[in-house]
Specification:
Helix content is about 35%, strand content about 30%. The strands form three sheets. The protein has an eight-stranded mixed beta sheet with strand order 3-4-2-1-5-6-7-15, with helices on both faces. A four-stranded mixed beta sheet has the order 9-10-11-12. Strands 8-13-14 form a three-stranded antiparallel beta sheet, with helices on both faces. Strand 13 and strand 14 form a beta hairpin. Helix 1 packs across helix 10 and helix 2 packs parallel to helix 3. It starts with a strand and ends with a helix.
């Protein structure tokens, strides 16, 4: 059994816990969270309203005392503030997997984690984008080297962007939705290869519950001007009540697509990979669990340092052995 720990027990952490419980070769040993003050708390995993597993819930600082009890740590904090600190910190002690998703800063983050992972395997930026979509972009480009690749996200709830908004002073709750521009998708699917600006591909819409004494104009300005998240997009900010937020923005669907519009010789070729997700955090957590298996296997082989999805053989993700994969899926 691969012994799993989880750091952070928000939406992604809960999704990861469900994923670990669903994998027969994994066992959730501990969850570490800022939301607990003692070492006697328990996380209850439920299936069909029944408790199927109980797991200790510890303060984050306790993790360093459990190095010998956990094979892979899933880092489920936000990319804006948590992972830049937690990624290198935990990679110095544990094999880790995370879903760091600030695309422009991934090279710098990779270097920081790699410097810390001297005797561990740390797989960064997994999930579906970055992650699965990154793999598709590389595969499509290699298969059809003449042309352009396009990535569209949504319509859906973005965990990272919502977390970034929640961290603004005066924000109580926040949900951010990414919305692709329909005309841009139709143009690419038709085989055309336009050059889009960032604003021409997606819109961003935020629903925010502000604290009672908060300056809403200041919050809106902070969102719209936030680099790497909103500054390059047409962004709408809606201030709503707590009741409306809980009624209409508690679900977290998402999805998107990677499209390659290219040519081979004199022939036009269009390739597409898409996702439609009822739960963004549960799906992302499921991908984290698969990469936890890869991190464990690579660490057993002494393949240490920071890795990305480009560095992981597909067979390392599967619970099936190589002959079975070849027989059933090749």
């Amino acid at each position: 059994m691969i012994r799993i720990g989880i750091v952070g027990y928000g939406n992604l952490g809960k999704g990861a816990a469900k994923a670990v419980d669903a994998n027969p070769d994994m066992e959730l040993k501990a969850v570490f969270s800022r939301r607990t003050q003692g070492d006697d708390s328990l996380v209850s995993l439920r299936k069909h309203k029944r408790i199927v597993h109980l797991c200790p819930l510890y303060p984050v600082d306790y993790a360093k005392d459990m190095v010998n009890n956990i094979d892979v740590m899933l880092l489920c904090g936000g990319s804006a503030a948590d992972l830049p600190e937690q990624g290198p910190h935990f990679a110095s002690m544990f094999n880790t997997v995370d879903s760091y998703d600030t695309h422009a800063k991934i090279p710098g983050y990779l270097a920081m984690v790699d410097a810390a992972a001297k005797k561990t395997t740390a797989i960064i930026s997994t999930g579906w984008d970055p992650g699965l979509f990154s793999m598709m972009r590389a595969l499509f480009e290699a298969s059809v080297n003449g042309g352009e690749s396009y990535t569209f996200w949504g319509k859906g709830f973005s965990q990272g962007h919502s977390d970034a908004v929640r961290r603004i002073d005066g924000v109580k709750y926040a949900a951010q939705y990414t919305i692709p521009v329909d005309n841009a998708i139709k143009t690419v699917r038709s085989g055309q290869r336009p050059v889009f600006t960032t604003r021409e591909k997606h819109l961003r819409e935020c629903f925010v519950v502000a604290e009672a004494d908060a300056d809403k104009a200041k919050i809106e300005e902070a969102i719209i001007k936030m680099p790497d998240y909103f500054a390059d997009f047409d962004t709408t900010v809606n201030f709503i009540s707590t009741v409306e937020f809980l009624e209409n923005h508690s679900e977290m669907p998402h999805g998107g697509m990677v499209i390659r519009s290219g040519f081979t010789g004199e022939s036009s070729q269009v390739m597409e990979f898409s996702l439609k997700l009822d739960s963004n955090p549960e799906f992302t957590g499921s991908v984290l669990a698969a990469y936890a298996r890869a991190a464990y296997r690579m660490s057993q082989e002494g393949l240490y340092g920071a890795k990305t999805v480009f560095d992981i053989p597909l067979s390392y993700l599967s619970i099936k052995d190589r002959p079975t994969l070849i027989k059933e899926l090749l």
